[in-house]
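User: Can you predict the 3D structure of Glycosyltransferase Family 15 protein? Sequence below.
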Amino acid sequence: MLFIHKNGKFYFKYILLALVAMALYILFYIVSKTYLKFDIPDINNNLQENNIKTGQIGKANACFMILSENSRLEGVKSTMRQIEDRFNHKYNYPYIFLNDVPFTQEFINFTKAMTKAKTKYGLVSKEHWSFPNYINIELVNKNIQEMANNRIPFGSSLSYRHMCR
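Assistant: Sure. Here are the predicted structure tokens for Glycosyltransferase Family 15 protein:
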């Protein structure tokens, strides 16, 4: 027999539990279809109205911040060309250039000529560009020399170390 245990006892508690679970499921289904109607905005209409395929509506409040030395102009030009060709020519996000020394006029002229977007140039203060007082300068110099000996890229560049901090 289907609902009889091998000792002859009925499985009433299991049958009752299954019926209660089924009743709760049916009740939840009816309530969710009748009373719980969620008002989900149609994102596709918003995207079509704004002619944006990425899912973002509007332009982000952002900029490109580039920390560079004057001597890295060729690398900056290459980077900006890629950004402008692939993306920023459509959106014109501004560029902010930072350095520990004033930018040369050559750097400013070339970077301004690379984009239609606004460009700004700033200085990083000495207190933010140099080592704090509690740093052991002898140990720093020893490690920089070791990195240079091991041919680690920019290993001998103290300026690069400050920039990465």
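Residues 3 and 11 are 6 Å apart (CA to CA). Strands lie at 64-67, 95-99, 119-123.
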